[in-house]
Design goal:
Blueprint lengths: L6 H17 L20 H13 L21 H13 L8 H14 L2 H12 L5 E4 L15 E5 L2 E8 L10 E7 L10 E7 L6 E6 L8 E12 L3 E2 L5 H11 L4 H23 L5 H24 L8 H22 L22 H8 L10 H12 L8
Parallel strand pairs: 1-4
Antiparallel strand pairs: 2-3, 3-7, 4-5, 5-8, 6-7
Helix pairs in contact: 1-3, 3-7, 4-5, 4-6, 7-8, 7-9, 8-9, 9-10, 9-11
Cofactor: FAD
Pfam family, one: Acyl-CoA_dh_1
GO molecular function, one term: oxidoreductase activity, acting on the CH-CH group of donors
């Protein structure tokens, strides 16, 4: 299989590289390699400004379906989207705070929304002006999303939403949240759900509580809705179609962005190898074998991602991708501390600074990657999807 890029792609690469070099200056240069999973707390305000910089350059929403009209994004083929993702990661540009709006909400509106919804929300995402978060998981309905309890009751020209969401990334920074809620109390499980677009600026009606993690940071949040208001015109796909829309969105979650993720993984792997060389751990044949396996598996993930990018309707592709990278990154976190030996368990030598102390990159990688096989759909759920939807095995009674 040929994964080479054409001449038009390489011209696009040169333009992307030139733009990034010219704009990753000043405060943005200081954010190099910062932000993203495990360090979302770093430089939040500057990264929001960077989002607007990307929008002004037309780099948000590459390849959105132009048949629906122009929303401020530039045209780009699928391979050019891959090129941009690669150059962005290689430039060590700041972790994106607008990726949920760009990569999840926007394709969902293009597929299931109406034209009024697209024209209201897509230009603001493309300009980097409005940020989004995802209101799916609940304390008793994480991987079993159909068991959610958040309700949305029709109230005149809109809905009143009550309930709780959890593990909500970027809820403290987001302007909007797309919320899956039950609009028909007489239906059960996946029936009677709706996909609502909810403004987050509703004091007294929406409360965001950060969740402190064992790494010391607060990447995720609890979100409490107490009569929060959503307009009737902001129900995507129509009332009762929430499950179809939500599942369509999840299928979009593992796209070109996985290639950005993999380039970041490659940088982390290179640092682990460098630490093994510095500390002499590379002389251990077992560790050396594991490092080689990590490298080989990363190459396989890249080829699989490229192979499946254009595979429309492949029900198992997103689940296979999640299974591959979740376990891989978790094993890398284990290697990151193992190659350093006992030193990896130590904090800073200067204890006069007091607690809490900052973890180093390897320690954060180890701790944060414990969640990789859980968030975004646990490994058990991914295997069930592959078994039932791809292999045609009997469904498990729930």
């Amino acid at each position: 299989m040929d994964f080479a890029f054409g001449s038009a792609d390489e011209e696009f690469r040169a333009a992307a590289r030139e733009w990034l070099a010219g704009h990753l200056v000043g405060p943005y240069a200081e954010l190099a390699g910062r932000g993203g999973p495990g360090s979302e707390h770093e430089g939040a305000a500057a990264r929001r400004a960077w989002e607007r910089e990307l929008g002004a350059g037309g780099w948000i929403g590459l390849g959105w379906d132009r048949a629906h009209g122009a929303y401020g994004n530039r045209a780009a083929s699928l391979t050019q989207q891959v090129v941009w993702a690669e150059e962005y990661a290689r430039a060590r540009a700041p972790g994106r705070v607008g990726h949920i709006g760009e990569n999840l909400l926007a394709p969902t509106l293009l597929a299931y929304g109406d034209e009024a919804q697209r024209r209201r929300f897509l230009p603001a995402v493309a300009r980097g002006e409005e940020l989004w978060c995802q209101g799916y998981s609940e304390p008793d309905a994480g991987s079993d999303l159909a068991g959610l309890r958040t309700v949305a009751v029709r109230d005149g020209a809109g809905y009143r939403i009550s309930g709780q969401k959890i593990w909500t990334s970027l809820a403290g920074e987001a302007d909007w949240c797309f919320v899956l809620a039950r609009t028909d109390p007489d239906e059960r499980r996946h029936r009677g759900l709706s996909f609502l677009l909810v403004p987050m600026d509703q004091p007294g009606r929406i409360e965001v509580r950060p969740i402190r993690q064992m790494s010391g940071t607060a990447e995720f949040n609890e979100v409490f809705f107490d009569g929060a208001v959503a307009r009737a015109g902001h129900v995507v796909g129509g009332e009762g179609a929430g499950w179809r829309v939500a599942m369509g969105l999840l299928a979009l979650e593992r796209g070109v962005s996985t290639l950005v993720q993999q380039i970041g993984f490659a940088a982390e792997l290179a640092e682990v190898v460098a630490a093994a060389v510095r500390g002499g751990a590379l002389g251990d044949p077992v560790l050396r074998d594991r490092l080689v396996r990590q490298w080989a598996e990363l190459r396989v993930m890249r080829w699989n991602a490229l192979r499946t990018l254009g595979a429309a309707g492949d029900a198992g592709a997103p689940s296979v991708a999640k299974l591959l990278w979740g376990g891989w990154h978790q094993r890398l976190g284990e290697l990151a501390v193992r190659v350093r030996g006992a030193e990896a368990a130590l904090g800073p030598l200067d204890w006069t600074a007091g607690a809490p102390y900052e973890l180093d990159a390897a320690q954060r990688l180890f701790l944060f990657s414990r969640a990789d096989t859980l968030y975004g759909g646990s490994d058990e759920i991914q295997r069930t999807i592959i078994a039932e939807r791809v292999l045609g095995l009997p469904r498990v009674e729930r």
